[in-house]
């Protein structure tokens, strides 16, 4: 039998895709949180207790763009903005997320709907106007950059259009503003040029299950990190997504927030809703969020990302999940320092 020793040597010398890496400096580790506009309409009921635990804020659900490249702000945009911006601690960053045109099909398969939505986005990206209109809004409100949660390019044509737009947008925005994306494993289509000018990539590590029905496990987080690193993303750009909500073990379309059920879940993060749906819901517990945060640090990622802010219990609850993130960061960097010594 002929053995190609060079190939064997190459395999042996090839680094593991998700091996431990030197952590980013602790001061640079990002805790990014999505703030949904509808949760910040009434200042009197907003819980600001976690704002000092966050480094990067993303406002979502309050701004869209249409097929003509116009940025459309919600009617209550200023009210929502004013309920957030003055409360962000100095030195922290505030970004605007832009959602694009929605599917115009009634019914049809998932693929058909995604193609429709992708085509509508492509029209906007190729309008030649979205770049300048985006910059205008960022300048007017003093945002630090823009985010796109783009889940619709299911073909090469859509990806090519999106990639060209991101490169063009980076040229228009210059160094003053950052560009961030939220992406799922398996939806990779960014060109090297687009990857290079994208400052942050949030890994949407949720709405995924293991064979037992557990939602967003530690093992799946490892799998997603491997996939993004294999694609070629710089570790420091990546943020590991953390769900502050549960999904049923049987994957039905229900979402239960942690702040309502934190004291009803068992040690495995499970809650049986026998009264309403009869379904078993799978949460990420305090301990699991802590472990995932430590994982992000040990893999050299740039941070973690939370979906979403309003789903957590107040900071004075010792089992609040932002407290778990803080605990994970502190523990991971302490352990790393001890290992060096």
Summarize the structure.
With 341 residues, the protein is α/β, with parallel strands linked by helices. Helices cover 35% and strands 18% of the residues. The protein has a single domain (20-244, 284-340), classed as Alpha-Beta Barrel (TIM Barrel).
Question: What this model shows, in words?
Answer:
By secondary structure, this protein is α/β, with parallel strands linked by helices. It is 35% helix and 18% strand. The chain has an eight-stranded parallel β-barrel with strand order 1-2-5-6-7-8-9-14. Helix 6 (192-197) links the parallel strand 7 (178-183) and strand 8 (200-203). Helix 4 crosses helix 5. The longest helix is centred in the last third of the chain and has 20 residues, at 321-340. The N and C termini lie far apart (48 Å). Residues 1-17 have low confidence and may be disordered.
Going by CATH, what is the homologous superfamily?
Answer: Glycosidases
Number of helices: 10
- The CATH class label is Alpha Beta
Kindly state the number of beta strands.
14
Q: List the quaternary state of the chains.
A: single chain
Low-confidence parts? 1-17
Largest sheet: 8 strands, parallel, barrel
- Note the beta-strand portion: 15-25%
Q: Which class of secondary structure composition applies to the elements?
A: alpha/beta
How many individual domains? Answer: 1
SSE string, helix = H, strand = E?
A: HEEEEHEHHEHEHEHEEEHEEHEH
Helix content: 25-40%
Using the CA coordinates, give the radius of gyration. 21 Å
CATH architecture: Alpha-Beta Barrel
End-to-end C-alpha gap: 48 Å
User: What order do the strands of the largest sheet run in, or round the barrel if closed?
Assistant: 1-2-5-6-7-8-9-14
Globular, elongated, flat, extended or rod-shaped: what is the shape?
Answer: globular
